[in-house]
Amino acid sequence: MSELSFPPLMSGLAVTGQEDPFEAACQRAVLGCDAGLVTYNLGADQLRAALVFAPEVPLHKAMAMLPTCGIGLQNALGALAPPEVAVHLEWGGGLRINGGRCGRLRIAASSTDPEVTPDWLVVGLELPLWPASEDSGETPDQTALYAEGCAEVKAPALLESWARHALHWISRWEQDGLEPLHAEWRGLAHGIGEEGQWQDATGTFLGVDEDFGMLLRDAERTRLIPLTTLLETS
Prior knowledge:
Number of helices: 5
Largest sheet: 8 strands, mixed
Order of helices and strands: EHEEHHEEEEHHEEEEE
CATH architecture: 2-Layer Sandwich
């Protein structure tokens, strides 16, 4: 495989074998690597990658990088996949292709305090290329990229495109604020207006607040579930 090409503000690092690019990115972030590092593992059956950020805003604002990276992936697939392929984003980081569950985004940071500006933040991507099994009877709503008419989308090109589109939306966020990001995300969000659940909370998913917190309405009240509840801890 030829060397991948990333935007000038980004650099790539391939990880091999069973090493998880998300964990590798977190480890390198702890050691002080530069922001813009893209770690990746392009296996035969799955694309796994992660982006390292150095936020300059408190964590509750920096968490916008999760939906930003989701929009970047949708835009990347929009550029490379057939036009009839529909990509939607779950609030919790899950990805949907043509309605089926297809991988996820995940997020970690150096701090879990919403008011603290973290030293680093990492967003990871896991995207199955081929179904794990020919028998999908146990998980009928699970799918894979190549099972949805995207066999011509090559993993290296998709990774490069994801990085470029994510960087584009980060620049939009820095220059124009959250409004364009919210507008784009609402058009891609899965499940708004439907019954939803997060941990022990159940209700109608009304949408999100300014910081992309989930607004969940039950019979008695509207509950706000901050995006920071999605943070993974080591």
